[in-house]
UniProtKB/TrEMBL annotation:
InterPro entries: Beta-barrel_OMP (IPR027385), OMP/PagP_B-barrel (IPR011250). Coiled coil: none annotated. This is Opacity protein-like surface antigen. It comes from the Bacteria. Residues 7-189 form the Outer membrane protein beta-barrel domain. It holds the Pfam family OMP_b-brl. Residues 1-19 form the signal peptide. Keywords: Signal.
C-alpha cells in the first residue's frame, strides 16, 4: 500500500519537471476508448489466458493533477479452456471483464504520467453450449500507471492496470490474477 501511495505522490510531484504551460488547463469531462491485452492466470497452477479487450473510461478532471473516472473493460471473445473442454466433452470458453471507478493523479503538460487507484469488480466467466454460464465475481482494490501525450484535441496513452483477484466460479479453492496493458485514445469535452 505504501508503494501505491508513493507512486501517486511521485506522479503529482513530478509535475514541475514535465509541465510546459499550466495556464492552458480547464476543468471538465473527458472520455477515452482503449484496446488492450488482459492476462489472467491461476494463482496455483499453470493455466493462463490472454484476452483481447476493449473498453473505456469516462471521468471528470477537477484540476491539473486529479480526476475521478468510471472504467470498463470487456473481453472481445472467449478463450478456449482445455481442461474444462476435456471434462465436459465439448468446447468450453472463458472470459474476463472488469468495471469500476478510479481516482487519478496526473502530471500536467504535453507529455504526462498517470497513476490510478480504485475499486473494481472483476468477473471471470465459463461458457459452454448446453450449459448455463458460470461467473465468479470479486470487488477489490485496483491500481495502475501510464504515460501519455496530449496532442491538439486528443490524448494518446499507454496504461498498465492490476485488477483484484477473482475466485474460479467452478473450483472455489482457486483464484485468478489479472492485469492489463492498453493503448487508449481520448478527448476532453
Amino acid at each position: 500500500m505504501r508503494n501505491i501511495v508513493f507512486v501517486i505522490l511521485a506522479t503529482a510531484l513530478a509535475q514541475p519537471v514535465l509541465a510546459e504551460n499550466s495556464s492552458s488547463f480547464s476543468a471538465g469531462w473527458y472520455g477515452d476508448i482503449h484496446l488492450g491485452q488482459t492476462g489472467t492466470s491461476l494463482k496455483q497452477g499453470e493455466q493462463s489466458f490472454d484476452f483481447l479487450s476493449i473498453g473505456g473510461s469516462y471521468g471528470y478532471q477537477y484540476n491539473e493533477y486529479f480526476a475521478a473516472e468510471f472504467f470498463g473493460s470487456f473481453a472481445t471473445d472467449g478463450e478456449h479452456d482445455d481442461i474444462m473442454s476435456a471434462i465436459l466433452g465439448q468446447e468450453a470458453k472463458v472470459k474476463f471483464d472488469a468495471i469500476g471507478a478510479y481516482l487519478v493523479g496526473k502530471t500536467h503538460g504535453k507529455y504526462y504520467l498517470k497513476a490510478r487507484v480504485g475499486l473494481i469488480n472483476s468477473r471471470f466467466t465459463y461458457s459452454a453450449g448446453g450449459f448455463e454460464d458460470e461467473t465468479g465475481s470479486d470487488t477489490g482494490f485496483s491500481y495502475g500507471f501510464g504515460a501519455g501525450v496530449s496532442l491538439e484535441k486528443v490524448n494518446i496513452e499507454l496504461n498498465y492496470l492490476q485488477f483484484p483477484d477473482v475466485d474460479d466460479p467452478l473450483f472455489n479453492s482457486t483464484s485468478y490474477e489479472s492485469d492489463q496493458l492498453t493503448i487508449s485514445i481520448g478527448t476532453q469535452f
